Amino acid sequence: xxxxxxxxxxxxxxxxxxxxxxxxxxxxxxxxxxxxxxxxxxxxxxxxxxxxxxxxxxxxxxxxxxxxxxxxxxxxxxxxxxxxxxxxxxxxxxxxxxxxxxxxxxxxxxxxxxxxxxxxxxxxxxxxxxxxxxxxxxxxxxxxxxxxxxxxxxxxxxxxxxxxxxxxxxxxxxxxxxxxxxxxxxxxxxxxxxxxxxxxxxxxxxxxxxxxxx
Length: 214
Description:
Layout: H1 12-33, H2 42-54, H3 62-92, H4 102-115, H5 118-123, H6 129-139, H7 144-169, H8 173-177, H9 179-213
Helix pairs in contact: 1-2, 1-3, 1-6, 2-7, 3-6, 3-7
């Protein structure tokens, strides 16, 4: 049994043994683009899924998982984008809204103008953020072709990459004996791209202020 990082019912091992491979695909879809799925364990679920495929607990060929998992991730983001595109304006229209404020739409425009498609790619590897970014992209009316392109790239890199990592490392005794630590490290590493991007942005802002003062 793989130790849980949170409540027992969110333990990736428990989820996969109970719901199977189809459950994995459903969770990836929901966590990728439906706002209600922000709390689901995406990264650790994929890693554990790869591990369980390697050990034979999940009886599905690796090649099939590497096709269907990215597909579920991409379709989830597409759904999130459409939700934001069609329902977002109505949600953000009220000027006195406490949570969904019109200012958020303006901030979303600025965010995607600054980072472009990279925002979709980077968000794919960050828990919680990857659930909301497709919706915000839709609200901000990000160019659809640009969104689809980066969504496919991110979905394949994340879905196939993390699953393959679990498959390859799952056979190592050290990994199996320290799976909880490994899963925590995966989450921390997932946050690194955005952390680096934020630090670079702050450095550029400081450089711009110094240039302006000079």
